[in-house]
Specification:
Blueprint (H helix, E strand, L loop, with lengths): L2 E4 L3 H12 L4 E4 L13 E2 L1 H6 L5 H8 L1 E2 L2 E6 L2 E7 L13 E2 L2 H14 L3 E3 L4 E6 L4 E5 L4 E4 L1 E4 L6 H6 L5 E16 L6 E6 L5 E8 L2 E6 L4 H4 L5 E17 L4 E2 L2 E3 L5 E2 L7 H18 L3 H25 L4 H16 L1 H13 L1
Parallel strand pairs: 1-2, 1-12, 2-8, 5-14, 12-19
Antiparallel strand pairs: 3-7, 4-7, 5-6, 9-10, 10-11, 13-16, 13-17, 14-15, 15-16, 17-20, 18-19
Bound molecules: flavin-adenine dinucleotide (FAD).
Length: 355
């Protein structure tokens, strides 16, 4: 079988690894000149760790990442609740979320793919396709035309593959601009915890450790570092930027011989840290469908999973960023109540880990 994967992000690389593990060698093309240096997704959930175990990728990720010990909620600098992770009977064999910058996750996947005999062709952009009952003809940059049995579009939120299929990407764009910073810092108070600070007027700031004395700060305010209500001794700013958020999902993840996976099929806010994980699970399911021959299963199963994740992520985003004083009070009171109850703390921890 001859498969082209467009996009060497987490979804495309996982598809390559999981197909190669099953004896199906795919070619990956990416328009970038080389591996990514962006640290976008930092939280790897237990299901992803389980899915990436057979290829040996999980062992490397565990070696490089930080196990998140707890989720801490603050209102300004008042601590509302601490939710310890690490349940006594962890599902999938993992009781923590692993914190690792996305470029390191991608490097581990790319190395596993090439070790299994796969090829990544960088500086090669997908430009178009046409398909019939037996094959897909693909145009790549420079006008090269190549023929494949199947194509997987894992080319991110602005997917050209999705565009070439003429598929809509229904949903909406959130009006606000979010900010992000990747910093080195000294003596941060919660070096192994995920910290969410609720700010006035619907603002939030989220701090996640991504290395020794290195943190990621995200906020729905214009300047992530200025928004911080807790003291952080920043020794170096590695990267600062702003981004916007769309909440969208394609109606079908397949059109004949072409499949969509990852952000090409769904996108939502980084609240809850699920986007990359959802793409990894899409790719694993798709590889399993190629192995079993049940290709019809893919779109149905992954559309349902995507819709559930988007709904969950939107629920949390709306609660955390509510501007209405009554909704804010309810959220604060709910967090304090959960924080005070061992049972509710463990239920909430399960939601973070496995929801
Ligand atoms: C600030 C931020 C924080 C986030 N935090 C988290 C988190 O903690 N946990 C989490 O799970 N998710 C998180 N996410 C989401 C996560 O980063 C994305 O869901 C993930 O990168 C999607 O992976 P992907 O492989 O589908 O697409 P991408 O990572 O976007 O990769 C697509 C690839 O396709 C290539 N490409 C595009 N067009 C073409 C073309 N025409 N031809 C060839 N190649 C092409 C691109 O160069 C790129 O390499 C976060 C996102 C942001 C912005």
């Amino acid at each position: 079988m001859n498969i082209l994967i467009v996009g060497a992000g987490p979804a495309g690389l996982t598809a390559g690894v999981e197909l190669a593990r099953r004896g199906i060698t795919a070619t990956i093309v990416d328009q970038r000149a080389g591996g990514s240096t962006l640290s976008r997704a930092v939280g790897i959930v237990p299901l992803s760790l389980k899915l990436l175990e057979p290829s040996g990728v999980t062992a490397r990720l565990l070696d490089e990442g930080i196990s998140m010990q707890a989720v801490k909620f603050y209102s300004g600098n008042d601590q509302l609740a601490t939710i310890p992770l690490g349940p006594s009977k962890p599902k999938y064999g993992y009781g923590h979320i692993l914190m690792l910058p996305q470029d390191q996750t991608e490097a581990a996947l790319a190395d596993a793919f090439t070790a299994l005999g796969g090829t990544i062709r960088y500086s090669t952009a997908f430009e178009g396709l046409s398909q019939d009952d037996g094959a897909v003809a693909v145009t790549l940059s420079g006008g090269a035309c190549e023929t494949y049995d199947y194509v997987i579009g894992a080319d991110g939120i602005k997917s050209s593959v999705r565009g070439a299929l003429g598929l809509d990407y229904p949903g909406h764009d959130l009006g606000e601009t979010w900010s992000i910073a990747d910093v080195n810092c000294d003596g941060w108070a919660n070096p192994e915890d995920f910290t969410l600070c609720i700010l006035p007027a619907g603002g939030i700031a989220v701090i996640a450790p991504i290395g020794v004395d290195r943190c990621r700060v995200i906020s729905n305010t214009p300047d992530a570092l200025k928004s911080l209500p807790l003291p952080m001794n920043i020794t170096q700013i590695n990267r600062e930027g702003q981004f916007t958020i769309s909440v969208r999902q394609v109606g079908k993840y397949r059109k004949d011989r072409v499949f969509l996976a990852g952000d090409a099929a769904h996108c939502h806010s980084p609240v809850g840290g699920r986007g990359m994980n959802l793409g990894i699970a899409d790719a694993c399911e798709l590889a399993a469908c190629f192995e079993s021959g049940d290709l019809d299963r893919y779109s149905h199963v992954r559309h349902k999973a995507g819709a559930q994740t988007i709904a969950g992520s939107e629920r949390v985003r709306k609660m955390a960023t509510a501007t209405n004083p009554v909704r804010r009070m309810i959220f604060h009171t709910a967090l304090k109540t959960v924080g005070a109850s061992r049972f509710l703390r463990s239920k909430m921890a399960e939601g973070f880990l496995y929801g």
